[in-house]
């Protein structure tokens, strides 16, 4: 069976951390098995739809390196649909297909029209809640004669769940599961505005798009019993189900948009690299097999190809995964340090740095060509934990610090090093090191006294790379100017 999986976000908001994990696991599973990764936009919630989210979701997936094989921005591949007349990757463009399915269910007695008002439904929910009962529909309209239920009054269409027995299905993570039918609600399939609910649309779409495996969050596990009954009522073969473990905050509360599930745009604003984010979410509910344990234990720096190689849905966990943001920052630090000074990832670091630099009053972009900034970033990034720290460390490569007040021994050391460095023909770290050490030896000044003063003179004591590479980055003229300024300030 050909592997076809889908990531099906609702454009009622931007892509968030939980969505990134769902997308990544679908993408890796497709690539692992030579299958197709499909993007489907489930835009049937018209009251909360955010049109700008449609493109942003696609942009975020591209930023993360997840290439969509079929989706709203790819050429339409009608042959991959069972019903090519309604082929589309956006649900609002497929409404006739859902109505056809609902009509078929009505005709076969698997669905019924519900005329209950919003006020009545709310009163039912409140009453059940106060009594500690499930807040499900009481099936009042299910017993209406068909003639009475076809009088043109505004209504919804509900699924007629079996009321006896149980629904069983297998999940590739949670195993064999069973739900008592009497406890499953008669779910609305078509809303009064004519748009389908998630439950009908996703079943119809997954069948029509020949989806082989449904990978989605654990919160949909209880709804799967409804979906299995819908598949059977429509005469469809269900796909394989893979439910991903719940994401929770460190305080054990469920992760949500309101409680810390950051949008990708917010994560980008933090200076997080896409490779770091992919490596981070990979570990949320998944662990490596023994075969791949050594590779994953020794690195949080795996390429998308390496992630594909080690990914196995058999290694998904049932227990909830704690989202610890400090872990993301740690992984990002490793990626910042290890990225080679060329390629898309390094270009992104440069973009992050320039965006932040341009907000600084001391930075003049006109006087800082890209190659100069790239050289500075390449040399400095191994010494900092984040892009923000890196930018802070760049300040004193653009702004000469004030002359410090030096004690007698450090002053002698600075004076001696300045004299040696003026005569240095080769301004490279090793040559600078040799000149400085020789000068201190002749002046009989210890390194422990001289080097803190030297860092203070050069970069105002700012943390950064070792002193000799720092001086090489500053250049001969600027380094000597700062050394001479310190001596004049103490004269």
Automatic annotation (TrEMBL):
It is found in: Mitochondrion. One of its GO terms (cellular component) is mitochondrion. InterPro entries: aa-tRNA-synth_I_cd-bd, aa-tRNA-synth_I_codon-bd_sub2, aa-tRNA-synth_I_CS, aa_tRNA-synth_I_cd-bd_sf, Glu-tRNA-ligase_bac/mito, Glu/Gln-tRNA-synth, Glu/Gln-tRNA-synth_Ib_cat-dom, GluQ/Sye. CDD domains: GluRS_core. SUPFAM superfamilies: An anticodon-binding domain of class I aminoacyl-tRNA synthetases (SSF48163), Nucleotidylyl transferase (SSF52374). Pfam families: Anticodon_2, tRNA-synt_1c. Keywords: Aminoacyl-tRNA synthetase, ATP-binding, Ligase, Nucleotide-binding, Protein biosynthesis. It comes from the Eukaryota. The keyword Zinc-finger does not apply. Gene3D superfamilies: 1.10.10.350, HUPs. Its EC number is 6.1.1.17. One of its GO terms (biological process) is glutamyl-tRNA aminoacylation. GO terms for molecular function: ATP binding; glutamate-tRNA ligase activity; tRNA binding; zinc ion binding. Residues 360-486 form the Aminoacyl-tRNA synthetase class I anticodon-binding domain. Residues 3-328 form the Glutamyl/glutaminyl-tRNA synthetase class Ib catalytic domain. It is an enzyme of class 6 (ligase). Belongs to the class-I aminoacyl-tRNA synthetase family. Glutamate--tRNA ligase type 1 subfamily. NCBIfam families: gltX_bact. This is glutamate--tRNA ligase.
């Amino acid at each position: 069976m050909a592997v076809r999986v889908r990531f099906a976000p609702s454009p009622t908001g931007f892509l968030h951390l939980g969505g990134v994990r769902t997308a990544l696991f679908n993408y890796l599973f497709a690539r692992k098995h030579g299958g197709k990764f499909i993007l489907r936009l489930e835009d049937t919630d018209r009251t909360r739809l955010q049109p700008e989210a449609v493109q942003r979701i696609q942009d975020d997936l591209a930023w993360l390196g997840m290439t969509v094989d079929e989706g709203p921005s790819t050429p339409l591949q009608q042959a991959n649909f069972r019903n090519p007349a309604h082929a589309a990757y956006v649900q609002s463009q497929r409404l006739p297909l859902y109505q056809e399915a609902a009509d078929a269910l009505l005709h076969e007695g698997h669905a019924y029209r519900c005329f209950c008002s919003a006020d009545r439904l709310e009163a039912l929910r409140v009453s059940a809640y106060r009594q500690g009962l499930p807040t499900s529909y009481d099936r009042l309209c299910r017993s209406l004669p068909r003639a009475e239920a076809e009088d043109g009054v505004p209504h919804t269409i509900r699924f007629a769940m079996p009321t006896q027995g149980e629904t069983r299905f297998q999940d590739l993570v949670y195993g064999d599961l069973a739900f008592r039918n009497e406890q499953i609600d008669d779910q609305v399939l078509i809303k009064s505005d004519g748009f389908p609910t998630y439950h009908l649309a996703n079943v119809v779409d997954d069948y029509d798009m020949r989806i082989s495996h449904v990978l989605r969050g654990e919160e949909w596990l209880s709804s799967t019993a409804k979906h299995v009954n819908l598949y059977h009522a429509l005469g469809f073969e269900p796909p394989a189900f893979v439910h991903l473990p719940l994401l929770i905050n460190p305080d054990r509360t469920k992760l949500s948009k309101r409680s810390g599930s950051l949008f990708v745009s917010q994560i980008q604003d933090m200076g997080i690299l896409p490779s770091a984010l992919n490596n981070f979410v990979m570990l949320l509910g998944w662990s490596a097999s023994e075969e791949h344990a050594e590779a994953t234990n020794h690195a949080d720096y795996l390429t998308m190809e390496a992630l594909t190689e080690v990914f196995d849905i058999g290694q998904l966990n049932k227990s909830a995964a704690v989202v610890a943001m400090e872990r993301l920052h740690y992984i990002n630090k490793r990626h910042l340090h290890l990225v080679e000074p060329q390629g898309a990832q390094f270009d992104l670091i440069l973009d992050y740095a320039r965006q932040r630099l341009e907000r600084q009053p001391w930075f003049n972009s006109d006087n800082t060509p890209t190659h100069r900034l790239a050289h500075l970033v390449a040399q400095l990034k191994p010494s900092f934990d984040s892009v923000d720290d890196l930018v802070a460390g760049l300040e004193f490569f653009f702004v000469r610090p004030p002359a410090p007040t030096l004690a007698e021994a450090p002053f002698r050391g600075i004076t001696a090093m300045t004299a040696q460095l003026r005569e240095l023909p080769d301004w490279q770290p090793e040559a600078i090191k040799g000149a400085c050490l020789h000068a201190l030896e002749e002046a009989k000044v210890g390194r422990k006294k001289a080097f803190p003063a030297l860092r203070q003179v050069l970069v105002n004591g700012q943390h950064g790379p070792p002193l000799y590479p720092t001086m090489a980055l500053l250049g001969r003229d600027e380094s000597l100017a700062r050394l001479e300024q310190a001596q004049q300030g103490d004269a």
